[in-house]
Design brief:
The complex is a heterodimer. By secondary structure, chain A is mainly β. Helix content of chain A is about 15%, strand content about 35%. A 7-stranded mixed sheet of chain B has the order 4-3-5-6-10-9-11, with helices on both faces. Chain B has a two-stranded antiparallel sheet with strand order 7-8. The chains are: A mainly beta, B alpha/beta.
């Protein structure tokens, strides 16, 4: 069976670190970074990128629209 | 652009599943982290882009947090006096009936100072879309009590919680306008989970399509959070909203057109 793999791109400077994406990610791909961006927010990043299934749940709840999602079958 | 990326081999244009709508200007939104306004703006921008309405849309921004709507949506926007957005939208829609006209209002704007305009515009059945973002508080001015504040809910002007005896009951604006003959489609949604975002988008798409058919006022309430005003983290505020706001303001369609 073809496996669906995804990948996200987070616009770090626009992220406000609200963590809404982290709790809505069904696979635990996203975590908050230990560093901050220039505004001082702990931004979201794909901590476990191999778990991403490209469902775009994170992107559609993101209030700031900072996440871009890619998806493919392998 | 500084980016945090996942697996690089999947990031190709042909694999693109979701991107920020181009109707949403490339500005950082001024809203607090986790605010439902941002999500609502994004849904609106996506729908305007998908339905190809960018050059035909006129929006009315209110007074409140979302007064800066015109900074973020790349469509024509007029800013109304406090609460008067439906009156302004009435005029614009009557003068330019081919345009898609929407108002975007918070609970302080729509349910407090603009009650009369809202009720009369809905009662006349003006052919506009009213988007009502209800977070139960005056967010911009520092978290004062709004008409929609829940009983017992703390705000800066009701520090011991809203007391029915002295402060009255919360106002269910959406239930009121659903009883008016002029409204065509009245619904209440939220944007705190992916499933709710999808439902809200579907509801707003329907409302935009009904306006094309000249059916009457469409009213979409979005129950939202206010992490700063409620003094909570965004995730906590979403949980609090689910536990307290949504039982009082149940989600779903309040008035659907007879098919």
């Amino acid at each position: 069976m073809a496996k669906i793999r995804g990948s996200i791109v987070v616009d770090v400077e626009k992220c406000k670190g609200c963590e809404v994406c982290m709790v809505s990610c069904p696979t635990g791909t996203i975590a908050m970074a230990k560093e901050v961006n220039s505004k001082g927010y702990f931004y979201a990043y794909p901590a476990n990128p191999e778990l991403c299934i490209g469902c775009a749940s994170c992107a559609i709840v993101c209030p700031d629209g900072v996440i871009t999602v890619y998806k493919t079958k392998i | 652009m500084l980016e945090a990326t996942g697996l690089k081999e999947i990031i190709k244009p042909e694999n693109l599943t979701y991107r920020r709508s181009e109707v949403l200007v490339d500005n950082t939104l001024s809203y607090c982290p986790g605010c439902g306004h941002g999500t609502t703006h994004r849904i609106l921008a996506e729908l305007i882009e998908e339905l190809g309405l960018q050059s035909q849309t006129i929006g009315i921004s209110p007074v409140g947090c979302s007064v800066l709507l015109y900074h973020y949506l790349d469509v024509d926007i007029q800013q109304a006096a406090h609460g008067r957005a439906p009156a302004l939208a009435t005029a614009i829609k009557r003068l330019l009936p081919d345009k898609f006209v929407f108002t975007y209002q918070g609970d302080g704007d729509l349910a407090a100072i603009g009650t009369a305009e809202t009720i009369h515009a809905c009662n006349r059945g003006e052919n506009i879309l009213i988007i009502f973002v209800n977070n139960g508080i005056y967010g911009m001015t520092g978290g004062q009590m709004a008409p929609t504040t829940l009983i017992g809910m703390k705000s800066s002007t009701s520090p011991r919680g809203r007391d029915v005896k002295t402060m009255g009951n919360p106002l269910k604006m959406t239930d009121i306008v659903a009883t008016l003959p002029g409204t065509y489609y009245v619904t209440r949604q939220s944007v705190h989970t992916p499933a709710n975002v999808r439902k809200t988008k579907k509801a707003m798409r329907k409302a935009i399509e009904y306006q094309k058919l000249n059916k009457g006022t469409c009213f979409v309430e979005i129950v939202s959070n206010c992490p700063s005003g409620w003094r909570m983290t965004p995730v906590e505020s979403n949980k609090w909203m689910e536990a307290n706001m949504i039982p009082f303001y149940p989600l779903g369609d309040l008035k659907t057109p007879a098919e």
